[in-house]
Amino acid sequence: MTAMSGQDDMVALSGGTFLMGSNDHYPEEAPAHRVTVDPFRIDRFPVTNAAFARFVAATGHVTVAERAPSAEDYPGADPAMLKAGSLLFQKPAHPVGLADWGRWWSFSFGADWRHPAGPGSSIDAIADHPVVHVAHADAEAYARWAGKRLPTEAEWEFAARGGLDGVEYAWGDELTPGGRHMANIWQGEFPHENQAEDGFEGTSPVGSFPPNGHGLYDMIGNVWEWTADYYAPRHQADAAKACCIPRNPRGARAEQSYDPEIPSIRIPRRVIKGGSHLCAPNYCQRYRPAARHPETIDTSTSHLGFRCAA
Fold first, then answer.
1. Is residue 76 part of a domain?
2. Paired residues of 269 in beta bridges
């Protein structure tokens, strides 16, 4: 099944209490803790190229990737790099070490949502794929235009679990039950060998894989998705206390979200969820509801999109 993501195609969820996070994988997912979320609605699909194009046509919005960065915002940056563009995945021709992500990511001048594979590419044949190369502000602008908002991290994870509490994946505890691929992720040795056993080497049309128990598509894989929450390297410590269950938690404060490894650049980070078509068993096993990752709010990439809530 494939589908176009309509502006009003949402699923109403009744909310409830669930086990958020995990103690079994990456440290930022811990501690696993009970959380309650109130009723909310969430988009059935990620926002597509077609839907984002309608937004741009209606508002004239210019995305972050389409604007040249200001030298004042990036002290010490090479002036030659202060041009419009976005991060683009480029598969190496041979095995490379996994310690340096610069081996497969490069800043491509002219890459943006209209040109997802760089200059000369287009979205003409992929209108039903998730929009990519959108920074956090772009996702927020679309959500406001649509009369919605971005989901909190807790809402997003509650939705992704599809009513299955405490299991590994959005569909159960097996990655490929009965040999069936349930999401668009990487098969083979990342980053040089993509066997595309699930039928896709890059992004896929939304709705190409089975929905979860809430009737939501592409919550896992395809593209990462922005959330509204600022990032902290672990879930809040008080969330693990037995005395109370947090209700509608909002994660870190803005001032806690900066990257401590880059003290000269103060750019907040937000939580992204769901993993992408670049997540592989040998690298970034984040194709799980509990998985989470930080992304600086000015960053756009070829594997990061969003969906809205209300």
1. no
2. 296
Report DSSP state, residue 99.
Answer: S
Please list, in sequence order, all residues whose beta carbon lies within 8 angstroms of the beta carbon of residue 57, skipping any fewer than 6 positions away.
none
What pLDDT does 2 receive?
A: 36
- At residue 4 the predicted structure's pLDDT band, cuts being 50, 70 and 90, is very low
Taken in order 29, 159, 198, 270, the sign of the CA dihedral is negative
Confidence check: pLDDT of 248 > 90: yes
The phi, psi pair for 276, rounded to 5°, reads: -150, -175
Average pLDDT, stretch 11-32? 96
pLDDT band for position 242 (50/70/90)? low
Kindly list the distances between the CA atom of residue 57 and the CA atoms of 53, 129, 130, in Å, as whole numbers in the listed order.
6, 18, 17
Could you tell me if residue 309 is inside a domain? yes
Q: Render the burial of 233-254: b for 16+ CB within 10 Å, e for the rest.
A: eebbeebbeeeeebeebebbee
Six-digit token string for 117: 């594979």
Q: What is the mean pLDDT of residues 268-273?
A: 97
CATH of the domain at 161: 3.90.1580.10
Give domain status of residue 78, yes or no.
Answer: no
Tally of domains within the chain:
1
Angstrom distance (rounded) from CA 228 to CA 43:
15
Q: Is residue 80 part of a domain?
A: no
Cα separation, 129 vs 203, whole angstroms? 7
CA gap 248, 259 in Å, rounded: 25
Lowest-confidence region among 206-210, 262-266, 267-271, 302-306: 262-266
For 280, the domain range is 1-68+86-92+101-310
- What is the Cα–Cα distance from 247 to 265, expressed in whole angstroms? 33
Judge contact between 69 and 140, C-beta under 8 A.
Answer: no
Task: Let me know if 214 is exposed, middle or buried by CB neighbors in 10 A (0-12, 13-18, 19+).
Answer: buried
